[in-house]
Design brief:
60s Ribosomal Protein L30, Chain: A; 29% helix; six-stranded mixed sheet
């Protein structure tokens, strides 16, 4: 890396690098002659005008086209028992346990990890984000999270990018953080952007990054791209799906207030925070049925920011015992993961879930992937304080935690649509990549 350092700080920087066994060399200084001068063994080897370097290089003129594909609308009947559908989603590659990968790397260097990648009574539940304590004599911590869903990019690169930002930020909030000090990184993986339709998709995604980050007030501080990811096979060009990984880094003042995603105690209340919409385009559920769909999840960033800020306030007050964001698989997967991570059961009622329009199918409510939603566990004695803190946003008490060892979901008509042992759900989740 090349960094710029004020002269008054150079001794401190050199000392810091030496203490960490990092090589560092002072290679030059800024001047006011607007030239780049390079020297090798005392001999000038380059003398270039900065105007030439910045403005003298010919720029490409490329054409961008937005090519939005319309996919066949999903056409299938809801199953009476959605338990198998839930297990099918838990077993998909993008949802299933990544423990086999996680355990291969040292993710607890120097023992400063507060919230680990895997949490719960047996340290096997999927954490929303990681919280680390870099300075041992300080309670301040750093939260690191990610958001990604290339499936959405097949429908809309714009909403894929916005959703990735929303996911990374809500995971910051899920572990007890806030949006007060958060920075973002982008990682674009794309096809050949010399092609108009590829460039058009990239422009859309980049615009979404700007629009969404501006509302959340979360600046992009760095990023990278990997373009031209295409190859030819049997005369056919195959390109990587439009993919954007968003990483978020947040500061938490007190790591002791960190929140994990596993259910903690039978008798506690289960809330859904955020509004559920009929947005299953690109969802894990439709994928298991062989569809893509068109109703891609969108982001209402202004409303979402207020929601996340109020949920952060509830965490800061100690009112949140467990929290998990709803992403792939929606409410169904989030509740299942919280249950088997905590070794507890839960009862969920679909008719209590806040929706923005009439959604007449239990499976669509259970597996919708609408953004800006959380499943939250709250102790009964904190019910009034929690609901008062969240006043003005969409939320509802949709069930309770119990010690039955089962996840039971009741549909819109009051009939049971899911009744699965948490051990069976956990097995479906762990089996594909069992380490």
């Amino acid at each position: 890396m090349v960094i710029a350092v004020p002269p008054k700080n150079i001794d401190e920087l050199l000392a810091l690098c030496k203490s960490e066994d990092v090589q560092v060399t002072v290679i030059g200084e800024f001047t006011n002659d607007k030239k780049l001068n390079l020297f090798y063994k005392g001999h000038r080897v380059a003398d270039l005008e900065m105007k030439f370097l910045h403005q003298g290089i010919p720029q490409w003129q490329l054409k961008a086209i937005l090519n939005q594909t319309q996919y066949p609308e999903p056409d299938f009947t809801q199953q009476r028992d959605l338990g198998q559908s839930l297990k099918d989603i838990l077993g998909t590659w993008n949802v299933c346990s990544k423990e086999w990968v996680i355990r291969q790397y040292d993710h607890e260097v120097q023992g400063g990890t507060v919230i680990k990648p895997l949490v719960g009574i047996t340290s096997e539940g999927p954490s929303d984000a990681t919280v680390i304590k870099p300075v041992f004599n300080s309670d301040k911590g750093v939260i690191v999270s990610n958001g990604i869903n290339p499936k959405y990019g097949q429908i809309s690169p714009y909403w894929m990018a916005a959703s990735a930002i929303d996911e990374a930020l809500r995971q910051i909030v899920a572990v007890g953080g806030s949006l007060r000090q958060v920075a973002l990184l982008d990682n674009f993986c794309w096809g050949d952007t010399r092609k108009p339709e590829m460039l058009g998709a990239l422009v859309e995604a980049a615009q979404a990054c700007y629009d969404t980050a501006k509302v959340y007030e979360t600046p992009f501080v760095s990023g990278k791209d990997s373009l031209y990811n295409e190859f030819e096979y049997e005369g056919k060009i195959i390109a990587i799906p439009h993919t954007l990984l968003i990483s978020a880094m947040g500061i938490v003042d007190d790591v002791k207030r960190s929140v994990s995603m596993d259910f903690k105690q039978a008798g506690d209340l289960v809330y859904v925070v955020g509004e559920t919409k009929n947005e299953l385009g690109g969802s894990a559920y439709l994928d298991t049925k062989g569809f893509i769909g068109n109703s891609v999840p969108k982001v209402e960033a202004v409303k979402a920011k207020e929601l996340m800020e109020k949920l952060s306030q509830a965490s800061e007050k100690g009112l949140v015992k467990a929290c998990h964001d709803c992403s792939e698989g929606g409410i169904g997967v989030a509740a299942a993961e919280m249950a088997f991570a905590g070794g507890l059961g839960a009862e969920i009622k679909m008719k209590l879930v806040p929706v923005n329009e009439k959604i007449g199918r239990d499976d669509f409510i259970l597996f919708s992937e609408s953004n800006s939603r959380f499943i939250v566990e709250v102790a009964p004695e904190n019910k009034e304080k929690f609901e008062k803190t969240l006043k003005g946003i969409s939320f509802a008490n949709i069930g309770t935690v119990n010690d039955s060892g089962k996840l039971e979901v009741f549909g819109l008509n009051g009939k049971k649509v899911v009744s699965e042992l948490i051990n069976d759900l956990k097995e479906a989740w762990q089996q594909p990549l069992r380490w």
